[in-house]
Specification:
about 130 residues; four-stranded antiparallel β-sheet
Length: about 130
């Protein structure tokens, strides 16, 4: 069974940094685009950033552009989301996702995926 396992969430003060990791349990996902989404209770899940299967292309939501950096280590099937200059509006549960066709590169309004992680909480205090 394919699994995406997130880690690195926690609580940080505004202006601080956190690094999220998402490890894939199956090497099959090396050919998948990967992404991070986030969700606040009572609101829809929203796109944060995505990265191509080979790590050569990335796309970011306007709200995080210039503050978040998404990278991919194909040697250990893990993606990393470096979150800097965090704001209270970044508080959410963050979900890792995998998509065979990289659908988010065709429109970040697409919030579906072939696989989802279990989520990790990020809380930014002001």
């Amino acid at each position: 069974q394919v699994m995406l396992v997130e880690s690195g969430g926690g609580m940080v003060q505004a202006g601080g940094s956190l690094r999220l990791s998402c490890a894939a349990s199956d090497r099959t996902l090396r050919s998948y685009a990967m992404a991070w989404f986030r969700q606040v209770q009572g609101k829809e899940r929203e796109f944060v950033a995505c990265i191509a299967y080979n790590g050569r292309s990335t796309l970011y939501a306007d709200s995080v552009k210039g503050r978040f950096v998404l990278s991919r280590d194909t040697s250990n099937d893990t993606i990393y989301l470096e979150m800097n200059n965090l704001e209270s509006d970044d508080t959410a549960v963050y979900y890792c996702a995998a998509s065979w066709n990289g659908i988010w590169f065709f429109g970040t309004e697409h919030n579906e995926a072939d696989y989802w992680g279990q989520g990790t909480q990020v809380t930014v205090s002001s």
